[in-house]
Design brief:
Largest sheet: none
Number of helices: 6
Strand content: under 5%
Structural class: mainly alpha
Distance between the termini: 99 Å
Number of strands: 0
Order of helices and strands: HHHHHH
Shape: elongated
Length: 221
């Protein structure tokens, strides 16, 4: 009897643990997806605006021109990210709502099944993506990344020092974004950081070099 009581007590505990574990994993997975999207948006803003400012800095030494260019890139990029995310998520929302209507139409006629489907529909509606929320989050993430090179260049008068400070600040931010992205994606930290850092350096270098080349050709003409 004692052995049987122990077995009866052990079975519900294992069942509860199995029920609780997926919920925790599911919640973490949802949060990780939102955080990864935010990190990618901030990384896009960082690299795009930094490369734009480096390109302008290749042909213009005026700090005001670089700052205005950076803000123009921030505004344009934030609007573009918001609109693109809004359209994408709204399309996904339309597809999911259409799928829910089809399932409701083709559902069984029994009352219990109907009630069960109705409960599932209410739960699914709560989990549907919000286009406005996604657009706002994407725009804010892009802006937070884009402001880094602007602030780095804002208070430095010397042209060469300004460019060096932009590269240094952007490099630190890229390492931070790469590290957070690797942690959320559970990928190798060093490889992820190196990938993001080298990609940012290449974008800034290519933009700087090509703009310098085009500017010199224009001056010669």
């Amino acid at each position: 009897m004692a052995a049987q009581n122990q077995v009866q007590i052990a079975i519900p505990k294992q069942h509860d643990d199995q029920n609780q574990a997926p919920e925790k994993d599911f919640d973490y997975s949802q949060r990780a997806q939102w955080l990864r999207a935010a990190i990618l948006g901030a990384n896009d803003g960082l690299v795009s605006v930094a490369s734009l400012m480096m390109g302008v800095g290749a042909v213009q030494e005026n700090v005001k021109t670089m700052i205005l260019t950076g803000f123009a890139g921030l505004f344009a990029g934030a609007c573009s990210m918001a609109i693109g995310e809004f359209v994408s998520v709204y399309s996904q929302l339309d597809i999911e709502l259409a799928q829910m209507k089809r399932e409701k139409t083709t559902g069984g006629g029994q009352n219990q099944e109907h009630q069960h489907q109705h409960q599932e529909e209410e739960g699914n509606k709560e989990q549907l993506p919000n286009p406005f929320q996604a657009a706002g989050a994407s725009s804010i993430a892009f802006s937070l990344g884009a402001i880094v090179p602007i602030l780095a260049a804002a208070f430095i008068a010397d042209h060469k020092v300004r460019l060096a400070v932009i590269v240094a600040a952007v490099s630190l931010a890229l390492l931070a974004f790469g590290g957070v992205g690797a942690f959320l994606g559970r990928s190798p930290m060093v490889k992820s950081c190196a990938r993001v850092l080298i990609g940012g350096w290449m974008a800034m270098a290519i933009t700087f070099g090509l703009t310098r080349l085009i500017g010199s050709m224009g001056l010669e003409m």
